[in-house]
């Protein structure tokens, strides 16, 4: 909101802009692992567009991906909670972070058990070569 209005909260220069803060309202976000209540700020002109969760949207897409990315970097659930609160102002519980990371870990285990994690290597290539006007097969060994 500070960036949108161009002045800090409670700053004396707010009368010059013609727009001012006008309180906030609660919004419930539907997530894969439950609902989350957040506070959305508003201005008098209704020209403020929330960046993280646009107007009329109740599902926060990509939120789980951010949690997973932070967890993959080695952050603890409480570190992730504090980071998201500081960066986006979304206050989530460490339990929600744990639920998201646990679901991903379960998917990884299922993927590993499915056999799709096998890697096949090419170890030989069958070709033909010409020796004195005749073609004879031979095998190149690749290492």
UniProtKB/TrEMBL annotation:
<feature type="compositionally biased region" description="Polar residues">
    <location>
        <begin position="11"/>
        <end position="24"/>
    </location>
</feature>
<dbReference type="GO" id="GO:0006313">
    <property type="term" value="P:DNA transposition"/>
</dbReference>
<keyword id="KW-0814">Transposable element</keyword>
<comment type="function">
    <text>Required for the transposition of the insertion element.</text>
</comment>
<dbReference type="GO" id="GO:0004803">
    <property type="term" value="F:transposase activity"/>
</dbReference>
<dbReference type="InterPro" id="IPR001207">
    <property type="entry name" value="Transposase_mutator"/>
</dbReference>
<keyword id="KW-0815">Transposition</keyword>
<protein>
    <recommendedName>
        <fullName>Mutator family transposase</fullName>
    </recommendedName>
</protein>
<dbReference type="GO" id="GO:0003677">
    <property type="term" value="F:DNA binding"/>
</dbReference>
<comment type="similarity">
    <text>Belongs to the transposase mutator family.</text>
</comment>
<keyword id="KW-0238">DNA-binding</keyword>
<feature type="region of interest" description="Disordered">
    <location>
        <begin position="1"/>
        <end position="24"/>
    </location>
</feature>
<dbReference type="Pfam" id="PF00872">
    <property type="entry name" value="Transposase_mut"/>
</dbReference>
<keyword id="KW-0233">DNA recombination</keyword>
């Amino acid at each position: 909101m500070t960036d949108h209005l161009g002045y800090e909260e409670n700053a004396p220069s707010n009368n010059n802009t013609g727009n001012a803060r006008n309180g906030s309202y609660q919004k419930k976000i539907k997530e894969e692992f439950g609902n989350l209540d957040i506070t959305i700020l508003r201005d008098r002109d209704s020209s403020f567009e929330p960046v993280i969760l646009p107007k009329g949207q109740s599902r926060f897409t990509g939120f789980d991906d951010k949690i997973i990315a932070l967890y993959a970097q080695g952050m603890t659930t409480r570190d992730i909670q504090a980071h998201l609160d500081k960066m986006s102002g979304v206050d989530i519980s460490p339990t929600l972070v744990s639920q998201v990371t646990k679901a991903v870990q379960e998917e990884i285990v299922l993927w590993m058990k499915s056999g799709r994690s096998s890697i096949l290597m090419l170890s030989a290539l069958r070709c033909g070569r010409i020796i004195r006007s005749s073609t004879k097969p031979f095998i190149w060994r690749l290492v």
